[in-house]
Amino acid sequence: MSYYKPKFQHPKLPKNELGYTVADYDGAVSTLCAGCGHDSISAAIRNACFLSAIPPHRIAKLSGIGCSSKMPTYFLGRSHGFNSVHGRMPSVATGASVANRDLIYLGVSGDGDTASIGMGQFVHLIRRNVNMTYIVANNGCYGLTKGQDSATADLGSVGKYGTKNPFDGIDLASLAVLQGASFVGRSFSGDKEQLEPLIRAAMAHRGFAFIDVVSPCVTFANNVGSTKSYAATRENLDAMPIDFVPMREEIRTQYKEGSSQTVTLHDGSIIHLLKARKDYKADSREDALMALQKANSTGKVLTGLLYLDPNSQDLNQVLELASKPLNSLGMDELCPGSRVLKSINEGLR
Question: pTM for the full model?
Answer without folding.
Answer: 0.85
